[in-house]
Amino acid sequence: MEKNYHSGTLKKSIRISTEPDKAWNVLSRIAQLNWLEGIKSSKFASNKKRGIGARRKISFMDGTNVEETIVGWRPKKYFSYIATSGLPLRGYHATISISKEKNMVKIEWESFFSSDLMGKKEFNDFVELLSNFYTLSLKNLKASMEK
Question: Using CB atoms within 10 A of its CB, is residue 9 exposed (0-12), middle (13-18) or buried (19+)?
């Protein structure tokens, strides 16, 4: 099987009955990730807790440990982060954004990524796993905010 580098993008969104301030309050607590699907634990990996340069380490039930660094931060609008370790990727950049729509909030999770050397099927399987992870995590977020 020939291995190559592959790249892809994902974009998932959900509408939640809440206010933008409440949504930002939950999402901007970057190490409080109880809404992430399959999470075991999360903690800060830096003294900085908010804004560009803050880092977090996320451990998942399947044994995966991912470290991420915040690279973009606009309060009540969005934050962007990169994965620095733990994924089968050369690069991963994601943005979670908040926008108001009538009496709801739209949360959008978008990412661009580039793989390590892998087969096309392996890459497609990873993209499907990531897509399902985003979808389930956003549903968890909605459920936790609409209590």
Answer: exposed
